[in-house]
Amino acid sequence: QSALTQPASVSGSPGQSITISCTGTSSDIGNYNYVSWYRQHPGKAPQLMIYEVSNRPSGVSDRFSGSKSGNTASLTISGLQAEDESDYYCSSYTSSTAHVFGTGTKVTVL
Amino acid sequence: EVQLLESGGGLIQPGGSLRLSCAASGFTFSSYAMHWVRQAPGKGLEWVSGIISHGGSTYYADSVKGRFTISRDNSKSTLYLQMNSLRAEDTALYYCAKGRGGPARASDYWGQGTLVTVSS
Question: Inter-chain contact A99–B46, Cβ cutoff 8 Å?
């Protein structure tokens, strides 16, 4: 099972919106609505930001939203803030091994 | 408050074995799937293994299949990962994570990790 493909880095200015893509296959993203997104600050454990494509856990800002089209999922961060600077990972359920993570995206706030 | 506390990591020679534990509290452990996820130094997250609530089904990444065994003791609210035939590429911080329900669902709580270093 290969990792899902994410851009290595995405950047934006404070207040702007950015979108991180996550591309998989018909064996994972394309066939299941179990796509999730995690944020990981340096030296910290990952934090769940989006589950089942577009749902936010309690306590996560509504500036974070998720979507999916075909084999590609997306995470959009609107009203970018300095605290959003972090690493972001997508994940999907997969028919082969159960779960697979994306390659990770470093978000930089300019 | 949900808490996950991993232990058992350390320095081990290639070919050796190690057992990781994850003590859970603050939720009904027996009702949720659990997972192990690892992160090699400076690298991304890699899902390693998962187990359903009652332990009847287990799942493994291809990279560890046949070498690692996940298990759980619901009476002790503890998750385990038995790691055999360890390789240098298994060096990583190993996280225990709680699933939101069944095995397909996301992980909503994570421990702080236990470091495994495979080196001679």
Answer: no
Best probe of the B interface among A9, A35, A58, A97, by most B CBs < 10 A, is: A97
Q: What is the pLDDT of residues A32-72, one digit of tens each?
A: 999 999 999 999 999 999 999 999 999 999 999 999 999 99
CA trace torsion A29, A33, A34, A37 (10° rounding): 70
As beta bridge partners, residue B96 has B36
Which of A14, A16, A1, A21 minimizes the C-alpha distance to A104? A21
Position A49: which residue type?
M
From the list B108, B112, B101, B82, the residue with the least C-alpha distance to B30 is B101
- B47 contacts: CB under 8 Å, gap ≥ 6: A91, A97, A98, A99, A100, A101, B35, B37, B61
- Minimal C-alpha gap between A43 and chain B (Å): 9
Dihedral, CA of residue B107, residue B113, residue B118 and residue B120, to nearest 10: 180
